[in-house]
């Protein structure tokens, strides 16, 4: 079937979640830094880290934690 099968969502201070069609959502709590200087590029970095972990063959849960 055509269409979106997976959705990766950043939830700010609540962490992130991965929704996969036909499966329970995978949630990852936020991991807070001691000091935040600038959040520019944080979303791009999150998505890239998830993609790298996915290409490396990690499980979806591990990918979300890695990101």
Automatic annotation (TrEMBL):
InterPro entries found in the cross-reference section: Carboh/pur_kinase_PfkB_CS, PfkB_dom, Ribokinase-like
Location of the Carbohydrate kinase PfkB domain: 3-67
Ranges annotated as spanning the membrane: none
Record keywords, A-Z: Kinase, Transferase
GO molecular function, one term: kinase activity
PANTHER family named in the record: RIBOKINASE, SUGAR KINASE
Protein name per Swiss-Prot or TrEMBL: Ribokinase-like
